[in-house]
Structure formats: structure tokens, C-alpha cells
Amino acid sequence: MSDRSVRDNLPLALVMGACGGMGTACARRMGQRYEVVLADIDGEGAQALANRLRAEGFKVRPAQCDITDATSVSALFAGLTKEPALRALVHVVGLSPAARDWRHIVAVNLQGARRVAEAALPAMCNGVGVFVSSLAAHAVTGPEVLHSLLDAPFVADFFERLEAAHPDGIDPVRAYSLSKYALNRMCRRLAAAWTLGFAGYAVGLVLSTALDLPSGPVIVWVLVAFALGWHGATRPRIDAPVPEPH
Is the dihedral of CA 179, 28, 86, 125 positive or negative? Predict the structure, then answer.
């Protein structure tokens, strides 16, 4: 690989959740065409990842960000320079049902993603955003009565109202499905707003079921690459070999 770390004409990409397997795989591939901001709640981990990727020749910078904290998200985007302009956002942050705390799952998967989306739009220049979701969203049944609630996750009594709408209780599996269902709705709304209201913007949604495979992060990255490919100005290279699933 040629040393891209000395290039100063690369557009900027932001990978949210860069320290996870999927985030790191996305960062490596985005690094073929972008300078990449490696954002993660684990600041030390982001720095260590940046050191590794710089040694591989990528131009990257680490950033600590807790997407459950509005101040942290605002600080991240405020710290992005206008040159190079932010052209791509890949949001892979998410908690699985294994996190156990259903409120925390929703706080990260839905509220956190919403904060990032709202902060990204004014910071981006002719860019594209991709949010990784899950087919678990389709496990939600009869959700029509919840639409207005799920579409407004920052109302003061959001969690209480969500709990009241499920008298039989909300376990981590249900919370995960609800959060991804709401994420899908958010992306559909953003697709219309970004495309119609701001010329040159696009937003995409990637559904993943391959994360339990050793090659899961690579498989997901191929899907992300196709999503980013919808926007010709920021089309990444996807010509590197992809390992076969084990």
C-alpha cells in the first residue's frame, strides 16, 4: 500500500464506532479515498487504532465521543475542520440485546443515532451518510401507534411513555428491535429531507445479519460501499479482495 498519510487533498470521512470490528473494517476501506476521523466512546482505543492505521499508511485522526451525551456529539462536530470538508458519515454504533439494559440499548441505538444525524447535516458538504441497522427491525409488529413516539425520542418522558405502551414489559430483545425499527424510520425521513432540501446530500441504510461471522465486518463493509456508491462524488474503492466466510 502506498503511503497515503502524507496526502493533504483527501476529503473527510467520519466513522462513528470506529473501534469495533465493523467500524475498523469500514475505516480501513474509507481510508483508501478519505482522511478518516475515528470516533468512539473509547478515546484511548481510538488513539491506539489511529496509531495502527497510520503505520499502515492511512491518514486518520482519533476522536472521543459518547453519542448518549449531546454535549459530546456537539463537540465532535464542532471540532471538524471545514477544510477538508466532511463528505461521508458511516455510523456503526449500536448495542445488541446482550447489553441487557433496555433503556441503554434505546439510548444508544436510537437517540444516539438521531443526535449524530442532526449534527452531521450542517457539517457536511455535498456528502453522504450511512447508518447500519438490522433485520431485527422487521420483528416489530403493530407499531403504528408507536410511530409518533419513536419519531420523537427526545421528549422528556420518552422512556416512560415507551414502557407504558408495552404493558407486558420491554426486554433487551424487544428494545433492540424497536430501536432499529425507529432507526429505519429516521433514515427514510432523512433520505427525503437530505435529498430534497439540500442538493447533493444522500443518506442510506444498511441492514446486517452477518455480524456473527469472522468475516462479518468485511461483508458489512461491502454493503456500506454499495450504499456510499449511490453518491458518485464520494464513491469509495471496493476492489480489494474480500475473504470468503469461514
Answer: negative
Contacts of 199 (CB under 8 A, 6+ apart): none
Q: Using CA atoms, how far apart are residues 57 and 30, in angstroms rounded to an integer? A: 13
Highest mean pLDDT: which of 12-16, 186-190, 192-196, 215-219?
Answer: 12-16
pTM value is: 0.81
DSSP 110: I
57-61, 140-144, 170-174: range with lowest mean pLDDT: 140-144
Helix, strand, coil shares, percent, the chain, to 5: 50, 15, 35
User: What's the topology of domain 4-234?
Assistant: Rossmann fold (3.40.50)
User: Taking the CA of residue 128 as centre, how many other CA atoms within 13 Å lie in the half-sphere pointing to its CB?
Assistant: 19
Place of cell 433487551: 172
Which residue shows C-alpha cell 437530505? Answer: 194
Q: Which of 204, 199, 12, 182 minimizes the C-alpha distance to 91? A: 204
Residue 131, exposed/middle/buried by CB under 10 A (0-12, 13-18, 19+)? buried
Other CB atoms within 10 A of residue 78 CB: 9
Tens digit of pLDDT for each residue in 184-212?
A: 888 888 876 655 433 344 455 555 443 33
